[in-house]
């Protein structure tokens, strides 16, 4: 008799990217018995979801879902997490890959207790990229309150300065290692899932919308950080030029999306994100007027459609069907005037507001950083799964723009595809 029971070819799966899709892929594979190497370029896990104030469908804070996932990872010995890590090279075939991973120095070792003494001793500040440069952070910092791994990071900009020595002296647990060097390790894995995620499209590239030129024009992800209690303003939405509570806000939809000069595709979540942002503003400022300039509102599914209808019923939220052509600033008041042609009336609309928010699209990270592997990539930078070839798969927003629920569903499917690669019949 022949034994046709499935047997593992190689028990290891590498997941590249520690955002919500990467976390889901890693957990689904590990919790059915496979060893997983989770590789993340940032010093923390959580990806873009960690930067949100709230996310759909329940409008709960990211701590709601991430805390559970972090606990599951911590409790699962099959998952090995590598942060500040980058894949440098992939060789081999499905079921038998050799992957070179570079681990960049954190300058803090496993002795760290998150006491914060290093940050208190540090005098220098660096730009806080977690808050999109809207604030500064100490050169020794915890990326965010519930960061995982729960260890401080020392910015490379501080290394070699007197401040670095002060940081080291302040640590009573001998957790600061200023001599830490980058290292490369080789890992043997049977399958790889690329959950490399997305980044906000660079609004500086949209010449007619004034980002970087006028103080009171921000992006949708910047608004997420302003609304968050862990953000640069402690959760208070205010306009950057004078910290004033905005009495009127304009949302510019499809900022760089559905545009042949920028992102030719629809980013799927921008409309819903702006509707969500309208709730942030209206909760803080019941009298503030919100103007949403749109091409068409995309609210896929019954739940999102009901959310859209609820926002439409708000007497202080106004929808203007028209693509914004230009913006300008009053140099005295710093107010922003948004100009669009109303597609319903045919008239040119000029709306002056305290602040404007650009609903910039989702661009795959791969569009700006080529991956060191034999993968199919679309013209727009999204990864194309080659199931016939197998072995390497893409999950979440590396494949297409998705919301959190869809990313999780997709990641679960890719965990299964990776497992199938490891099984010989």
UniProtKB/TrEMBL annotation:
Matches recorded under Pfam families: NAD_binding_8 (PF13450)
Record-linked InterPro entries: 4Fe4S_Fe-S-bd, FAD/NAD-bd_sf, HdrA-like
Domain 4Fe-4S ferredoxin-type: 103-132
GO terms for MF: 4 iron, 4 sulfur cluster binding; metal ion binding; oxidoreductase activity
Record's keyword terms, sorted: 4Fe-4S, Iron, Iron-sulfur, Metal-binding, Oxidoreductase
SUPFAM superfamilies: FAD/NAD(P)-binding domain
Protein name according to UniProt: Heterodisulfide reductase subunit A
Naturally occurring in which organism (per UniProt): Desulfosarcina widdelii
